[in-house]
Here is the input.
Amino acid sequence: MIGLEAINVTKVYGAGATAVTAVNDVSLSVRRGEFVALVGPSGSGKTTMLAMLAGLLRPSAGQIFIAGQDIGRMSETQRTRFRGRYIGFAFQSNNLVPYLTALENVELLLRLNGKLDRNGRERARDLLVRLGLGERLHNRPNQLSGGQQQRVAIARALIHEPEVVLADEPTASLDTERAHQVVQTFAELIHEQNRAGIMVTHDLRMCKYVDRVIQMMDGKVSRVITDRREILRLAGAADELDGHPPSVNGKPALAGDPLAILQGV
Amino acid sequence: MAFYLAFKEVWRNKGRFALIAAVVALITVLVLFIAALAEGLASANREYIEKLNGELLVFQANTQLSTAASRIGRSRVAELRRVEGVEAVGQVGFSTAKLVPPGGDEINVAFIGVEPGMPGEPEVFAGQQLERSRGNNVIVDEGVIVRLGVQVGDLIRLKVTRGTREEFYDLTVVGLTDRRQYFFQPAVFAPIVTWDNIRADGGQPGGELVSNIAVVKLRNPDEIERMKRRIEAEVKDVEVADKKTAWEALPGYTAQQSTLSTQQFFTFFIGVLVVGGFFQIQTLQKVAQIGMLKAIGLSNWTVGLTAFAQIIIVNALGVAVGAAGTLALTANFPVTVPIVLTGATALAAVLALLAIGPLGGIVSVVALLRIEPLRALGMAQ
Here is the structure.
C-alpha cells in the first residue's frame, strides 16, 4: 500500500534568467511501513523535496499524492488542515512548544484533530513511556535534554496516526549515542505502526536504520540503495553484517521493493 | 485550541506577562488620574455656573464673557425682566474674601452676592434660603463646610481688605449647599446688598446696585438659542451666553482642559506603543516556534487568535488592576485635592484603555500571520 507518491515533481525558484531548478523531475514513492532516508550534499534539493512532500511548498510541476489526495492542488488552508491530519513532523530544532509539557506537546496533535479523549490521552502517555519519558511527562522542553526533546517530537509525529511521517535532520543537535537511539526508536515505531517514513539527513550513519536510501544530487535522484549490505556499507556499519544479523531491532529489515521505489530515474 | 494555547502560554510565563500587565496598570492609573484631575479642576472652576438654576448668563457687551470685567446694573436687570419669555432674573456679583476661622489658617473663598429667591441663589440642603436682600446671613457650600466644620446657625468671620485696611465681618450661616466652587475657591453666598457693602470695592454711595452678571431663567428652557438672540436684540449693551459657553470663557479653563486632554492622549499613545512593542518583540522571538506550529497543522486563524486572546487577557488584567487601584486611591483623597472621578469619565477612559492592547497588538498579529510554515524546515520563500 502506497503511503506517499511523488510523480515527476519539479521545483523552480525565481523566473527567467535567475531561475534555479532545485528539484528536477523527481519521482519516488514510499509504502506504509517503509522508512526511507533522503540524503545528499547541501544544494542537492533534498530539503526542497521534503518541503514539497510535506505540503509546505507547492511543486512547480508534477503531482504528490498522500492518502490518495493530490496535495499540490490544495489551497493553503486545505493543505494546513491536511498536514495536521495526515502528516507527522519531526524537525531539526524548535520542535516543541516551549510552554507546554512533554505530554501536552504530544496531545496537541490529538487536540488539533479533535481526538483528545480518554483513549487519546492514554495513548499519548503510553507512547512517551515507551520512548523512555515516563518520568518526564510533565516536564517542559527546557527541562529535557536534546535527545529527550527529539523523542517527544517523535511521539508527537506519530500520535495522531498519520499516513506519512517526515523527519528533517532529527539528529543534527544530538551526540552519536543519542542520535542512534532516536533514529532507531523512530524506525521501530514507523515499522510497527505501519507509517510511511521519510528522513532527510546528512548523517549517513543513520541510514543503517532505514529500508532504502535515496541519494539526491543537483536536484535529481542520483542513486537508490535498497540492498541491505549496500545500505550498511554506506552507513559505515558494514562490520555489523558479520557480527549481527541484518535486522532492524530484532526484526528482519525490510528490503525495499525495487518496483515500488523507482519511477523515472 | 487558540484559547487553550493562549491561556497556557500566559500561565506558564506569568512573570513576563505580569510585567506587561503591570505597565498597562500603571498607564491606567496615570490616564485615570489625569482624567480625574481634569474633571476635578474643571468642576472646581465651573461648579457654581454649571449648577446655576437658570439657562442664560448676561454679561456687559464687549467684555468677552469675563465675569470680572462685566458690570450689570439694576436698570439693565429691570429691562431683562421685561423681555418676553423670561421667567426670572437674578443679579450675581463675584468677589473674593478670606474666611477667618477661630484659631485656624485663613481660607480664600469666592464671595458671591445673589438675589434671594432669584436665579443665582443656590438651593440649600440644610437650613434656609436667604430671605432678604439685606442682613448678615449667608449660605456656604460644601467646600467651606468640610474645611471649617460649620453648622447652620454658626457665625463665620469674613476678612476683606479695603484699600490697605483690613475689615472683618461676622455673618450667620443660615443654609448649607452642595459643592459650588467658583474659580477653585469654596463659596460663600450673601444677599446682594450685603455683598455690595462688604466687598472690597463695593458700596459706592449714590449709584445703582451693580453686579457682574445676571442669571436668566427662561419660561421654556428649550428655547435657549432663540431667547439668547431675543435678549441681545431687545436689551442694549449686553452679551448673552449659555452656561457651557460661559464656563469655557473662564480664564484658563479651555487651555487647562486641552493641556490635560493632550497629556491624556499622549499617555494613552505611549501605552499603545509599549504594549505593541512588547508583543512585537515576543513575536520576533517566536518566529521559529510559530513556523513549526503552522507546519504541524495549526491554521493562521488559530495562531492569530491565540496572540489576540493573550493581548486581550493581559490588557484587561492591567486595566482592571489599574482602575481598581485608582478608585481605591481617589476614594481616600482629601477634598482639597481637585480629583473627581465621575462614572462617565472613568468609563470612557477605561474603554479607551481597553483598546490599547488591540491597537498596539495589530502589528504583531499581522507579523504572526505572515510567518511561513516553511520556517520549520529552516527555509523561507
